[in-house]
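Hi V.,

You were right to ask for the full record rather than a summary. Here it is.
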Amino acid sequence: MVRVIGATRLTRITGEDSCNRTASRFGIHATDLGILWDDGRGGVLAAFGDTYGEGWGGDGAGPPHADWRYNVIARSTNTDLDAGLKFDSVVEREDGMAGQILPGDRTGASESTVIPTSGIAVGGRNFLHYMSVRQWGTPGVWHTNYGALAYSDDGGRTWTKSDAAVWPNRRPGLLGRVLRRDEGDHPFQMVGFAGVVDEHVYLLGTPNGRFGSGHLARVGASDLLDPAAYRYWTGDGWSDDPFAAAPVLRAPVAELSVQFNRHFGQWFAVHLDEHRAAIVLRTAPELTGPWTDGEVLVAGSEYPALYGGFQHPWAADRPAVYFTMSQWGPYNVDFFRADLE
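Predicted structure:
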């Protein structure tokens, strides 16, 4: 069993008071998430959610007129992670500041924002999973229109939303009908890519919001943009029906990050546990489980209104987990190391 010895906040990585001075360098005064993955080209990409510039209010997201971008991406190549997560560059817009990489919905759906949830590089192409947020609800609750994939063939500099790789937040038979409040339960609206194993890409998904369970899926490495090629773990085998997926991570699971830790020979899942108000680490010998109940990495009693928890892919061979973490109050992202035994 893997035990958490303790976690250390290494540095803030966004905002002007961070190691990256992102306000003056990139126009990022405030943002959240920091989803990390190896870009397959010698760097690590970091995807952020709702991002604000000049005029940001100083507490939480908004206001919308403060140079609001739904999402931005930075790139890092530093290997001394104890010195922090250093950004070399961002995907820029014309004025040299960080630009929005994924536009709003093109179908006319009611949409509040477009939030990335996980990324992976496969076969020279980068893939970014995102959710189209229809409406924010009470804390920890929101409703999505769909989860979907975008891709980049130039190392993350430009992105294309796939027209095919879209998972609407409805059960079969409800397409085209107005979504009732109790119908938004598709189990793969937010995902965490786990990696490539035996020519399959594995991922764990959750419904919209922060109170669902984690479910397992896989797809051939060359078929990521084809929803019909995905198979979902039922507990006994693989089904082509996402609603047949059995929970492998008990609720509540939110902002999920999954990778194999080579030092311990275990799968690591880091996520927000809303009931415990903590970022937790859960481990398993196989992606199908059994998964541990989870050890606290960072507690909300020390860092109020915390969320996120996205692992750095270049630390998967260490007796530690390095991860990003957000707080609603500062509305910026910190970088942590948790030592393990």
